[in-house]
Structure formats: C-alpha cells, structure tokens
Amino acid sequence: MNASKRRQLQREHRPENIARRLAETPRPQRLSDMVLGGIDGCITTFAIASGAFGAGLSPLVVLALGLANLLADGISMAVSNYEAVNAQQRFADNARRIEEEHIHLVPEGEREEIRQIFANKGFSGQNLEHIVDTVTANRGLWIDTMLTEEYGLSGTPPDPLASAWWTFIAFIVVGAIPLLPFLVPALDFSRQFIVSSLLAALVFFSIGLVKGWIYHSSPLRAGMKTLLLGGCAAAVAYLVGNGMQRAFGAI
Predict the structure, then answer these.
(1) What is the model's pTM?
(2) For 184, phi and psi rounded to 5 degrees?
(3) Which helix (H) or strand (E) holds 205?
C-alpha cells in the first residue's frame, strides 16, 4: 500500500469521520439492479441479432424483433425484480412482527437468544451480561439485532420500485446499443452485424470492468468473464439461427 493511500485511510478512520459515516443512513446499492438489467438487455438484443443473422433474415427483422423484445423483456425484467425485492421486503416485515411478538410474550427467552448470539462471538462473564442488558434495554435495537443476527437481514430496507426502475432503465439503455448499427442503411447486413458484435463486446467488457472496480476485484478478469458469458449466449443464438436456416432454407 502506497503512502498516499495509507494517509487517506487514516483520515477516513479519525473518530469524527467515523462518527459522521456511521450516522448516515445507509443507501441501497443499485449496482446489482443495473448490472442485472444491463447484461440481460444486451444479451437479449444481441442474441436476436445473432440468431437473425445466422438465419439469414433482414436487418428490418432484426430491428423489429429487437425493439419488440427490448420493451417487452425490459418490462418483464422490471416486474420480476420488483416481485423478488418485494418478497424480501415482506419477509423482513414478517420477521420483525414475529420478533416483536416473541419479545412481548417470552422476553426471557429472547434475552437468552441475545446472550447466546454474543457468547458465540467470544463474549463471556460480566462483559456478556452488560451487552445483553444494553441491547435488551432498547426495544428497537433488540429487534434490529435479532433481525440481523438470526435472520441475516440488512438494516437497509429494500425498495422494490427503485429496484424495478433501475433494472428497466439499464435494460433499455444498454440493450439498445447492439441495435444501433441496424439503423444505418449505408452499411450492408454483414457490416452491421460486425459493428453490433463489437459494440456488444465492448458493453459486456465494460460492465465487467465496472463490477471489478466497485467490488475491488480484478477489473480485467471481471471484464473478460462477463464478455465470455455474453459471447457464449450470442454464439448459441447464432448457431440455432444458422441451424434453422440450413434445415429449412430461407425463412
């Protein structure tokens, strides 16, 4: 670690900076929603382009199918993500109600759960009892601790609408990129497909780079992995389209 990075970390871990950071309300991470929508959008439209090119269809067919699937699948992805996140939210709400009821009906049993949770973390004796007393003295902290430790739930409540929105936007914006060359009539179908392939490859690689950079893993490796996954999906679509064309002739 270089000296400037070390100094930056030291500044971030001063008591006043730590207190300010912990006082902030955690923001939901939208990267997973955007990556989900972006990758699926690009795969969807480029797979259509690959299959149509392999089957010998026209650029107009690529545009028609691509735009129709872009909108329909974008809405489908958004709805699916909304339902998934909404299910998580309902689970968290139900778990909170259960813990509130248990604390009301069997408080000593819930205190024992807190005691065993922190005992498993290595606390014992007076230190353990002090932690138990502190946690159970605050009903909100008590419930939040049980949700985190027993159910593995995050303290940041999920937002189904926001997740659906960002998935839809990423799907539409990124998914439209492989279709752009087919809007250029000056290029023949082969050149349109080549440019579309290059754009799709750039998109897949860029998404992987961003993932690697944000999650502090190797950006190059993440980029190549995402590019390989997207390329495999497109290759399957091309082979299916080409196989149909060979089997049944011009479509």
Answers:
(1) 0.75
(2) -105, 95
(3) helix 189-214
